[in-house]
Amino acid sequence: MKNILIKSVLIATFTCTGVFILSTENVSALTWTSDVLPDLGYFWNCGDGLVNCSGANGWSPGLSGALVTINYNAQVKNLDTNTLLNSGQNVPVGTHLKFEAVPFNDTDISWFGTGYGNDSPYGHWINNANAPAKQCDPADYVTTSSGILNPSFGGFGVYIPLSVNQSTVSYDHTGSTAGLSCSGNGQTCTVTSPGSIVGNVTFGNTYGKFYYRYLPNALAAANGWGWGCTANNVALRQGDIEEELMTINGVDTGLSFLTFYFPDHSLPLMNSSYYPGSDYTLSIPAQTISLTLTAGNASTPTIDLYFSFLDTIKSSLQKITTLFHTTEQTGRVFAAGERR
Questions:
Q1: Residue 323, CB half-sphere, CA atoms under 13 Å: how many?
Q2: Is 310 helix (H, G, I), strand (E, B) or coil?
Q3: Is residue 72 within 8 Å of residue 287, measured between CB atoms?
Q4: Nearest to 213 by CA among 227, 231, 228
Q5: Terminus of the chain with fewer CB atoms < 10 Å: N or C?
Q6: CB neighbours (10 Å) of residue 307?
Q7: Quick one: average pLDDT of 157-167?
């Protein structure tokens, strides 16, 4: 039983953590990518849905060499016009602004590897990275695995949910030179003087956990594996996955299978209560998106003042010209106090 159900191993093609920032119209996005994940094993239990192994349980290979990607998005809104602003846009003094994280969506999270030709499974934002519902969600589908000992028994759809605790979001304006009067948490602000505006939207550090589900196909179900999704709420654990040759009576069969070992390299035994280690927890560091704007004085009053000044000069010149022509017509200029 131990190695029949799975051969869901992902071969990683990237080897380093990366952060990519992209600013598009109205929304700024940041993408975080994990390091290659370690080998993970999953807990199977006949009591979770299978019907032909008398309540047996144990640990088997679950996942190897995967990468996780998380997308974060933020935006800034002009509350006076109820419109989103582009990065770098100019706003007048007096503008009311709101900096905000775009609402979280499960499609923000994905993880992937190579070797199956399937789309990357999505993740789930769930408090405390708890297990999602006990179902085989198409968003979590990885591959279809055939029985290793006897493929004629049928295959199993493999589903690996990734649950991520939702990040807390905080706001600050470090780096701004413009005057800003902001609310207590720094999310809404009024521009009080010209300069550069920086709105730092920080998504706090968080964590995630993997879980495992499998769904027997019709052939497997007909061979006694039961119908419906088999699932439990036990998170995957870290260990080592090794490929081993299959022999029968000392004769090499030419076949191989995968075995999961605990971190102390002990082999998980069926129905054993010895489960060294703990749930594998994916550590996700804090990420910050900086939204930038430029604040200047309102333009209309400045233009009005300028033209008002020009009108004053024009009026004064007209009066001087009129006086000059009047003096020419009289033929003389009278000195102060002189009688005409």
A1: 8
A2: helix
A3: yes
A4: 231
A5: C
A6: 9
A7: 93
Amino acid at 19: V
Its pTM stands at: 0.73
What distance in Å separates the CA atoms of residue 114 and residue 99, rounded to the nearest whole number?
Answer: 38
Residue 129 belongs to what H/E stretch? none
pLDDT band with cut points at 50, 70 and 90 for residue 330: very low
Contacts of 56 (CB under 8 A, 6+ apart): 1, 45, 46, 270, 271
Is 181 in contact with 96 (CB distance < 8 Å)?
A: no
Residue 95, class by beta-carbon neighbours within 10 Å (0-12 exposed, 13-18 middle, 19+ buried)?
A: buried
Measured between alpha carbons, how far is 163 from 48 in angstroms, rounded to an integer?
20
Using pLDDT thresholds of 50, 70 and 90, give the confidence band for residue 270.
low
Q: Do β-strands 195-203 and 287-296 pair in parallel, antiparallel, or remain unpaired?
A: antiparallel
The phi, psi pair for 57, rounded to 5°, reads -155, 165
Nearest to 132 by CA among 106, 94, 168: 106
Which residue is associated with the tokens 């009024």? Answer: 190
Helices (H), the chain: 218-220, 299-330
Q: Which two tokens stand for residue 234?
A: 């036990």
Whether the CB-CB separation of 130 and 333 falls below 8 Å is answered with: no
At residue 83, the pLDDT reads: 94
Q: Tell me: the pLDDT tens digits for 1-52?
A: 222 223 333 222 223 345 544 444 578 999 999 998 888 888 877 666 554 5
Distances (CA, A) of 270 to 55, 73, 84, 152, 274: 10, 45, 58, 24, 10
**Cβ atoms of residues 263 and 279 within 8 Å:** no
- Within 8 A by CB and 6+ apart from 277, the residues are 237, 238, 239, 262, 263
Read off the pLDDT of residues 206-260 as tens digits, 9 standing for 90 and up. Answer: 999 999 888 877 777 776 666 778 888 889 988 776 665 555 666 655 554 566 6
